[in-house]
Specification:
Helix content: 40-55%
Order of helices and strands: EEHHEEEHEEEHEEHHHHHHHE
Low-confidence stretches: none
Radius of gyration: 33 Å
Number of helices: 11
Structural class: alpha+beta
CATH topology of one domain: Alpha-Beta Plaits
CATH class of one domain: Alpha Beta
CATH superfamily of one domain: Trigger factor ribosome-binding domain
Length: 427
């Protein structure tokens, strides 16, 4: 076996492998023996068809199997011989189909683990993040939302024009070019004016109508909305059947008892204040960790395998499509996915880069996740799921999740180390 290695990129290697005719012939012999066992050819008993006949009928299949067999048997040895620390399965490209009595060459393209020289992991200079004050008091906003949820719907007098904040009930029919739209009709449809949850523009047309009034109007759909109606203007005929207002619940101790476990409004407010402060504090900590990670990556630059970046990106897109794909029109899904691919690539590369840095820092600082720590985390998961620890352990082993859990815990410990060693300053 002759080997040549070419550095075709910072981490990409092209491994050229040439195998002698004897090795190729041995592979053909083995493949044709297997084919002979299962071949069913007229005029020959099973397993008795001669090689010449098999070559006439199965040459292409044999070539494909020989190529796969030779690569499977020789590529790991070639990688080991040249001491290549690969990070993904190589792609194999033959110079041509293998032929009996002739050498065979193929090229394996692979990516190797980056060599990382730690330059600075202690004393990383990071500015503490500060959160801007909220536009509105979050406690008052939450209480107001609860008051609306606990409020009572009161029907307005018949001559009351619908306004923002009203709850209206309406019947409507939508059509396009005189033909009814599929799913474009409803009876007793409830609509909160001003909530922005209706067909774009519908709420504006309903404002000002009283119960019993009917209105016809067109609603243009912008091109960028996508879908079959993009750029068109479906026609609506809508009749308001009722207009109601929400009578808000009184903000007092009885209200606090109804919506919480507290006996007084003051105690409930105090708990909401604690939650808001804890949430803001957690957000500051999260942003601090992200800034420290960015500083560590900037101080310790190195190339990353683009194949791993592609896999990370593909995984993120696949998860998002599974979660939200049904909400996106099929005719626009391909364009949306391509925009995600462009927008999310830097984040995917950052994740891959930091995963390598985590391993290097952990080795240098002897940071590890002990078996007891892993068991403790699995016990927490079991308690949250209200399942036995043994059942959760078995499920994690069977699904191959133990290594991922351990990697996540190791990353958390490394981040905690970096934050503890960072030099934090106020802006």
């Amino acid at each position: 076996m002759n080997l040549e290695v070419e550095e075709s990129g910072p981490l990409e290697r092209k491994l050229r492998v040439e195998l002698g005719a004897a090795e190729v012939d041995a592979a053909f012999d083995a493949v044709y023996r297997q084919i002979q066992k299962h071949a069913r050819l007229r005029g020959f008993r099973p397993g008795r068809a001669p090689r010449a006949v098999l070559e006439r009928y199965y040459s292409e299949e044999a070539q494909a199997q020989v190529m796969e067999r030779l690569a499977r048997e020789t590529l790991p040895k070639a990688i080991e011989e040249r001491e290549l620390d690969i990070v993904l399965e190589p792609s194999v490209e033959p110079s041509g189909p293998p032929k009996p009595g002739a050498p065979f060459q193929y090229t394996a393209t692979l990516e190797v683990r980056p060599s990382i020289e730690l330059r600075q992991i202690r004393g990383l200079a990071v500015t503490r993040p500060t959160l801007p004050p909220p536009d509105e008091d979050p406690i008052d906003a939450h209480l107001q939302q609860l008051r609306v949820q606990q409020g009572t719907l009161i029907e307005e007098p018949a001559d009351t024009p619908a306004a923002r904040g009203h709850r209206v009930t309406l019947d409507y029919v939508a059509s396009l070019d005189g033909e009814p739209l599929e799913g474009g009709a409803a009876t007793g449809h409830e609509l909160e004016l001003g909530a922005g949850r209706a067909f774009p523009g519908l709420e504006d047309e309903i404002v000002g109508l009283c119960a019993g009034q009917t209105k016809e109007f067109d609603l243009p759909v912008p091109e960028e909305a996508g879908g079959e109606l993009a750029g068109k203007s479906p026609h609506f005929r809508a009749t308001v059947t009722s207009v109601k207002r929400v009578e808000l619940a009184e903000l007092d101790d009885e209200f606090a008892k109804d919506v919480s476990d507290f006996d007084t409004l003051a105690d409930f407010r105090a708990e909401l204040t604690r939650r808001v402060e804890a949430s803001r504090s957690a957000e500051v900590e999260r942003q601090t960790r992200e800034r420290v990670i960015d500083a560590a990556l900037e101080a310790n630059s190195f190339p990353v395998p683009q194949g791993l970046v592609e896999r990370q990106l593909a995984g993120r897109i696949a998860r998002t499509v599974r979660q939200y794909g049904a909400q996106i029109p099929q005719e626009t899904l391909e364009r949306v996915v391509e925009s995600w691919r462009q927008d999310w690539r830097p984040a995917a590369e950052r994740d891959v880069r930091f995963s390598f840095l985590v391993g290097e820092i952990a080795r240098a600082e002897k940071i590890e996740v002990g078996s007891e720590e892993l068991d403790e985390q699995l016990k927490k998961i079991a308690d949250e799921r209200k399942e036995s620890l043994s059942r959760v352990k078995r499920a994690y082993r069977e699904q191959g999740l133990v290594q991922a859990l351990e990697a996540g815990m190791l990353e958390q410990k490394v981040v905690e180390f970096l934050v503890s060693e960072a030099t934090l300053s106020d802006a």
